[in-house]
Amino acid sequence: MRTAFDVNWGGTDLCAEFGLYIEYGSISCDPPAPKTCVVEVPGGVDIDLTDALTGHAAYGRRKVAFSLCYDGRGGSAWQDVAREVVQLLHGIEADFSLSWDPGFTYHGRATVTSAAFVPRSSCRIAVEIDADPWKVREVHTESVSAVGGAKVTCRSGRRPVHPLISCDYPVTVEWEGNRFTVPAGRTYRMAAVTFTEGDNEIWLSIYSYRPASWADLAGSTWADVGRYTWAGISVADGEQDPDDFIGDGTVVLQWEEAYI
User: Is the Cβ–Cβ distance between 34 and 59 less than 8 Å?
Assistant: First the structure.
């Protein structure tokens, strides 16, 4: 059964799997309330500290609610359908998507507030979800070769995020005039880097290398350089021998593009 509205809970399409439909008028998915902090000043102008700590507003949990109905046409007893849905949802935390908000993934914990027989529709299962305030459009993964340096443009959403970075080599990062080095071999969340809504440009470089020019290879033959990777050949003024430079200098960035 396909309906006008569907809910996919943890990879299970509730309507298609159980022969349910979402009751018209039962859907609620309001934006999360902002967390505000205003200090009252007697006799003066109140001070709004909402953005003081992070430079942007924070938000409370989002409430999502809907009613699933079963009309018996799926061939199963309504008690069996209700039991399976309760087992799948009640008290469980998972990612979920809503057909009336296509392209976004939510995350939250579900509560089945009622599951009862209803004339004409066999049963109605009322669901409430205590969800994170942010909904994710995409988890971006960007891979670039940072040998000699590379500028990466990262599209981010309404939610400010600290991107993850991983590389097999130490990586020099330049962000908004600041420079720091990320160690090799692990994945790190860069607390010093905050992507905000729109395009964000970040500079990545493996060590302090500069790209080699043909002049740097003057006098060399293919026999001299044939045993090296191109990454090793293309590095000049490096801090290690080309024999020690293994791989292609790939750096991987990952971040969520999320909105209210």
Answer: yes
3-state secondary structure the chain: CCCCCCEEECCEEHHHHHCEEECCCCCEECCCCEECCEECCCCCCCEECCCCCCCCCEECCEEEEEEEEECCCCCCCHHHHHHHHHHHHCCCEEEEEECCCCCCEEEEEEEEEEEEEECCCEEEEEEEEEECCCEEEEEEEEEEECCCCEEEEEEECCCCECCEEEECCCEEEEECCEEEEECCCCEEECCCCCECCEEEEEEEEECCCEECCHHHHCCCCHHHHCCCCHHHHCEECCCCCHHHCCCCCEEEEEEEEEEC
pTM flag (> 0.85): no
Residue 108 in tokens? 């939250």
| Predicted confidence (pLDDT) per residue in 187-225, tens digit | 999 999 999 999 999 999 886 555 667 777 788 888 877
Structure tokens at 61: 């949990």
Residue with tokens 């050949």: 233
Beta bridge partners, 94, equal 108
Domains by residue range for the chain, with CATH: 7-133 (2.40.30.200), 137-259 (2.60.120)
- How far is Cα 136 from Cα 116, in angstroms, rounded to an integer? 33
Q: What is the pLDDT of residues 8-26, one digit of tens each?
A: 999 999 999 999 999 988 9
Q: Specify the residue for token string 């981010």.
A: 156
